[in-house]
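Hi team,

Filling in the usual template for the complex we talked about on Friday. All components are listed, including any nucleic acid strands or ligand strings, so the model treats them as one assembly.

SUBMITTER: L.P.
PURPOSE: interface mapping
COMPONENTS: two
RESIDUES: 599
SEQUENCES:
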Amino acid sequence: MKTHNSFDEQYVFAGKAKTWSLIAIVVGVITIALGFLTDTERTFANLLLMGYYFTCVCAGGVMFCAIQYAAQAGWSASILRIPQAFGKILPIAALILIIIVVSGLSMKHTITNEDGKSYVAPYLYAHWASHDLTVKGSEIYDSVIAGKSGFLNEPFFLIRMVGLLGIYSLFGWLLFKYSNNEDDFGGMKYYNKSFVVSCVFLVVFGFTVPVFAFDTIMSLEARWFSTMFGWYNLAALWVSALAVITLVIILLRKAGYLPWVTQDHLHNMGIFIFAFSIFWTYLWFAQFLLTWYANIPEESAYFYRRWEPDFKIWFWLNIVINFAAPLLVLMSRDSKRYTSTLQTICIILILGHWLDYFQMIVPGTLPQKDHWYQVITWIEPGVFIGFAGLFTFLLMSALSKFKSLIPKKHPFLEESLHHHI
Amino acid sequence: MSSTKFILGLFDDPDVMMHGIDQLQKNSVPIYDVYTPMPIHGIDDKLGIKPSRLGYAAFMFGCLGGTTIFSLVYYFMVHDWPMDIGGKPAFAVPSFIPATFEWTVLFTAFGMTATFFFSTHLFPGRTPRVMDLRATDDRFVIAIDAKGNIPHEEITNLLKEAGAVEVKHNDRKYVSYE
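RESULT (copied from the run log):
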């Protein structure tokens, strides 16, 4: 353990962190390769899950920066470099997600539907992207999907995905560039620019994230729809991003970096995590209650599938760990200020939101199992570890390229260094 | 025997007042309380004030509100007058949750307000009890209980040296009663 006190201290990415992240990447690559040989469908579902999770966490980092600038927050100035690094690796995450989606759409296999008819379908988005679904007179013609095909068709789908992720990446890059220029030139010019860019980003992001979530995840079960789904995903994105940002700050601090980050900064992050876990539950419940209460077949089919024996335990575990854990543990002031408690909750929430995304993706894409313990195989942890390693490696490489781990000339830096609550 | 009950040191700058607190503590003069027109970071630690227990009160009020309405709804919907609504069972927990949530929030809010009024003696219509009227305007006031803290001249000099713009020897604790 060493202490750094200079603002010019750079992060050095070496040693254990680098070794373990590379090992994790290798584990991931081996899992994906073996997964493609044994259970391609499951591997694709997991790749989509982790690709989406990875992209969402990075986009959440950009959202964090943008909120701090738009609110003209002072307390967070000294930790802004961490979410900026998230924004910096967002283009890579987006590229990986696009590759997964494109290969999932183009690789095809034969499946059998409920009526016993066999047809060729892509590995991902089989519910709307199979060729004959929207062709009138074909054996598997589906009038509901045909009615949605003006929106849900491959070219438009890919244009939307590339466009949205491109826009988010551009804003993430702009926010980083302005902050970097601020370090070099000082003055209020770049802060004001960041403010404008952040406000524009938040409006764009707020309105388009539901579309992104509808496309990437909800269209897996294309006949079902929920207008809450976009906000529910935005909440999940935001909570998981906050948990990851906090965890990265805690670990960097334990490694002897970021000496200016105090318990008060972590307390604020804890408040954020606590508040938005409640918000996530609120949206989860709003979606569930209305569907459950109205009990319209086309809507409740989604929850019906998740209440079958193989998923029911996971379904309830999801709400318990993502709601009860932060509610009961993070409510008191002391636990938010106690680093190891906060760290444990961050790890629980990162796993919890993996389970949340697992709930959204897997029941609709993979065949039913008999028992709850059969739905998670060796592929799930393998792919998770691989992406966690990839994320760590990319994030730490991005951080080590920063000239300084603190925006030295941020106008509110003094306020952040003396933050006290 | 002097009739002074409280010695007040009035400062016009929060940093100078913080310095004044240091000076008093260095000379082992116990401070009764400090009144400031705005919150000052770090003053709680300096004066050794325990963290507020309002949060615990809020939690208890929330629990009370939640259990009250949940029991009431249970009594209405399951015991007293069960109704068939959309084929749901009488004890349909998910539909109880919005009301439980709202009452939890309501009881917490009202309970915290009441607790705050109770502990600060701030009831609507009651004249607030203040030691110096300008503590709500532009003066930062350190109050020292005069009883036992002698000699008063020394405390006065200490405050003056620390930068107090005015030192008052008050015969009454509060300038505004009722």
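MY TAKE: The first strand of chain A starts at residue 108 and ends at 112. The two ends of chain A are 27 Å apart (CA to CA).

Thanks, L.
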